[in-house]
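Need residues for this backbone.
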């Protein structure tokens, strides 16, 4: 008898950009039917997220034995291992490090945007640092400029594309920088990527 495939829980919110990164990767890898999303509340001490990931951060993948896999980059690598493929990035060789490095631009955009959100969410209005916000915004602008100068192939669905698609969608909802007016090649890229990869609309439309 063929063993039952392991099912996974993703602790996140439907709008978290890093949660969307993990869910988009799972869909692209053909694992969407083996993943269930359970909402997490990072601000609640009663949420079991803090037992599943002692850092209390999402997303966190919970395995059948209750153990947690985190953060989003480790989860994506785990999912690719489960899928038994090299679709999102090579397992070894110089191409692996070049791709993973470029994919970090998308991660950095999402991370900087999140830090801007948390600056306002976790500080009183008179304690908010505009200098800190400008510093994070600068990271996003430089990363976007690098990607605008050399956009990926919209027909190639790898980790660079997954991260970039989630980062741009995040900036559409949380407009920390006006990327659509300054990055016309990335606007064209996102439209073409969404047409090419149906998983994008499936993940982004889930709210």
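Answer:
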């Amino acid at each position: 008898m063929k063993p039952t495939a392991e099912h996974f829980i993703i602790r996140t919110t439907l709008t978290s950009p890093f949660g969307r990164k993990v869910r988009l990767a799972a869909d692209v890898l053909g694992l969407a039917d083996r993943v269930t999303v359970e909402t997490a509340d990072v601000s609640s001490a009663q949420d079991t997220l803090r037992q599943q990931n002692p850092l209390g951060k999402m997303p966190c993948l919970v395995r059948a034995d209750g153990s947690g896999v985190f953060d989003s980059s480790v989860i994506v690598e785990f999912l690719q291992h489960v899928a038994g493929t090299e679709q999102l990035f090579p397992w070894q060789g110089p191409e692996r490090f070049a791709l993973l490095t470029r994919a970090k631009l998308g991660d950095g955009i999402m991370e900087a945007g999140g830090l801007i959100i948390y600056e306002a969410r976790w500080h009183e209005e008179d304690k908010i640092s505009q200098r800190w916000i400008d510093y994070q915004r600068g990271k996003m602008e430089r990363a976007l400029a690098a990607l605008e100068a050399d956009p990926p192939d919209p027909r190639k669905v790898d980790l660079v594309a997954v991260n970039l698609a989630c980062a741009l969608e995040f900036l559409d909802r949380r407009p920390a920088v006006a990327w659509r007016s300054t990055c016309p090649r990335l606007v064209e890229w996102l439209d073409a990527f969404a047409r090419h990869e149906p998983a994008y609309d499936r993940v982004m439309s889930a709210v």
